[in-house]
Amino acid sequence: MGCSSSLPANSTGGLGNINNENSATDSKNLKVKLVLLGDSGVGKSCIVLRFVRGQFDPTSKVTIGASFLSQTLALEDSTTVKFEIWDTAGQERYAALAPLYYRGAGAAIVVYDITSAESFNKAQYWVKELQRHGSQDMIMALVGNKADLHEKRTVSSQEAQEHADMNNMFFVETSAKTADNINQLFEEIAKRLPRPTPLS
Amino acid sequence: KQPADPNRRVPPPPDPATMEGGADAFGSSTAPLAWHDFLERMRQPSAAEFVKSIKGFIMTFSNREPDPERDSAAVQEFLENMEGAFRAHTPWAGSSEEELESAGEGLEKYVMTKLYNRVFASVPEDVKSDEELFEKISLLQQFIHPENLDIKPEYQNETSWLLAQKELQKINMYKAPRDKLACILNCCKVINNLLMNASHMSHDNPPGADEFLPVLIYVTIK
After folding, report:
1. Segments in chain A forming alpha helices (H)
2. Where does the record place the region Disordered (chain B) (predicted)?
């Protein structure tokens, strides 16, 4: 199941990159804290690893496996966005820790598994929680993962799309296994990030 | 910067027995070269003013009544001012950002090591809450099992977790914040490596926070 087990080729250890400011450095180089929420087993870490692996870029830094890493994404308009990606534990008993993670986050990805209605319920719970307690201008994405398993689908795209629209999120179905829509997901988040207004 | 192995552990710690007094009081788990460079430059005559300010700060600080909130702000402000001054004056003027950063690290380490006894456990409330936490964790230790934390059986490996526990225990041997942080990071790396191996063995997905966080909590409690 899921994604393959190889690791990103380029990674740098060390302490220098632990930093969770939500602020951009300048108008061309943005920096954002991104948090992943969702039931355990929906493929949160696979999505991140797939994204990082797809970048072929020496700036990706794995600090603690897939639990915390950073990756810079270059956009077509020559802006760069440095994502600091925090994975969370999806088990019920760790739900109380989530606020520690999404505090100060500029973007959140709420993940469910398209073959699991249960995980979609859980995703709705996270969306509600973020609406209530997350920062107002947080960019939120609803992501149905494991799209390659469409013959086992139990959550329709239409239902998810409606839920996303209702909550002012964007919606995409991905497959960390085949890499479908993974880059698009992060690019879309990057494009939607608020640009700092120049001082003039 | 050189790309380094993410699983590399930061250099070995010195013997804690030698850490009192003399230069060894600054036993380091991170970048010993940068630390020596910092001391070297501080010995230069052009750094005399810096040395004076640092000693002055430590003196004033030590003579004040402890107040955690204000103390923390005072240290941060001092570090910030000094880092600004480093940038503008010899022996650091014209240094690269990286060199300035390591000078800042050196300064923090020097100041915090000197102030260690004054800033850690310096007010009764802190000591009390430390004791209470210690007591609670000791109670938890007696009955907690990996399954209580939703650690999947294929990832359970108490013997190997001892390695991670050892890394974390080193935290008490260091005084500088960055060195303490390095102990936590090393502990996390050990855990992540173990999880990575286990996921290879069981052909599972690479481990993420679902697997990592429960083990970190378990190791911390133990």
Report:
1. 44-53, 98-102, 117-133, 157-166, 182-192
2. 1-28
Using alpha carbons, list the distances in angstroms from residue A197 to A27, A50, A73: 8, 32, 21
Helix, coil or strand: residue B152 = coil
User: Per-residue pLDDT tens for B146-179?
Assistant: 988 988 888 888 888 999 999 999 998 998 888 9
Pick the last residue of a domain from B119, B151, B178. Answer: B119
The question of ipTM being above 0.85 is answered as no
Say yes or no: B203 contacts chain A, CB-CB below 8 A.
yes
Give the nearest partner residue to A5 out of B6, B192, B206, using CB atoms: B206
Query: Could B213 and A89 be called an inter-chain contact, meaning their C-beta atoms sit closer than 8 Å?
Result: yes
Domains in chain B, number: 2
pLDDT digits (tens, 9 = 90+) for A61-100: 656 777 888 889 888 888 899 999 999 998 888 888 889 8
Chain A residues with at least one Cβ partner in B under 8 Å: 1-3, 5, 7, 10-16, 18, 36, 40-41, 43-46, 48-49, 58, 61-67, 86-91, 93-94, 97
Domain count, chain A: 1
Which H or E run contains B213?
helix B209-221
